Amino acid sequence: MAELPDVPPLSKTVPGYRANAWSGLCAPKGTPPEIITLLNKEVNLAMADPEDQGAHRQPWRCRAAGSPEDYGRTIAADTDKWAKVVQFSGAHVN
Questions:
Q1: From first to last of its 94 residues, what are the pLDDT tens digits of the chain?
Q2: CA separation for the pair 48, 52 (Å, rounded)
Q3: What secondary structure letter does DSSP report for 5?
Q4: Cys-Cys crosslink for 12: which of 4, 8, 27, 87, Cβ 3.0 to 4.6 Å?
Q5: CA-to-CA distance for 82 and 19, rounded, in angstroms?
Q6: Are 80 and 87 spatial neighbours (Cβ–Cβ below 8 Å)?
Q7: From CA 54, how far away is CA 56, in angstroms rounded?
Q8: Which pTM was predicted?
């Protein structure tokens, strides 16, 4: 991270460690594809706006524009990854 040049990444202490948080927009199932395409286009344009990036920039945040399919793959991969972690840990809800 550019703002913390002297702080090594956690992966240097715990090899292979990777955890991140993400957020994004979702639409109800059945939303017409042309609406999804329009929303995706406008959100990606907004994220590329240098003025907007400066207003919300924080050292730990990065923006990643992409497609609805990219976002779906992110959700699926993290769901699979963290399900395995939860199962391995034995955690459960009472």
A1: 677 888 888 878 888 777 778 888 899 999 999 999 999 999 999 888 777 655 555 655 667 789 999 999 999 999 999 999 899 999 988 8
A2: 8
A3: T
A4: 8
A5: 10
A6: no
A7: 6
A8: 0.66
Q: Which residues of 31-43 are buried (b: 16+ CB within 10 A; e: fewer)?
A: eeeeeeeeebeee
- The secondary structure element, H or E, covering residue 83 is helix 68-89
**Residue 30 half-sphere exposure, CB side, CA atoms within 13 Å?**
0
Per-residue DSSP letters for 7-36? SPPHHHHSTT------------TT--HHHH
> What would you report as the CA-atom Rg of the chain, rounded to the nearest whole angstrom?
17
Token pair in block for residue 12: 């240097």
pLDDT of amino acid 68: 93
